[in-house]
Amino acid sequence: MIAAEQWYEYQRQYQKYGLDMRPEEDSVSQRERRKQEREAARARGPVLKLSGDHRVMLALIAAAAIVLMMVVVIVSYGAKVTYDINTIKAENDVIAGEIEDLDVKMLSSNTVIYVESQAKEKLGMKSPDNKHCVYLSSSETPEEGFADMLKAKAYN
Question: With b meaning 16 or more CB within 10 Å and e meaning fewer, what string describes 4-14?
């Protein structure tokens, strides 16, 4: 027989290597206890057991994901603003073209030829005959004024 001290020494030596020296009754009850713990854990729901390093890494990954999402949102907002600016620039170019067209029309409508053509087409006016023309020289200047003389001839 082995003395008690030798038996405990024997058990300690084999525990280093992971051998279970306990009787079968204890290991069976331990299996049942583990099974009960697993069932209880399933009933509670998933539990994440993390060590300190894992928690730090998880926090860093979560922070990086949030930062990346913010970058995506900022870039998309910048693209929307750029699109709006380009749309407004295109509208401004169209309006600038219309302004140039109106300027050309305005300058062309101020000429004597345009005024004469509009008077003939829209108002039905005619060019004067030779008998209706009055030619003045510096010696024939009316005494009361040229405008008064035209009024008198036009309304009489």
Answer: eeeeeeeeeee
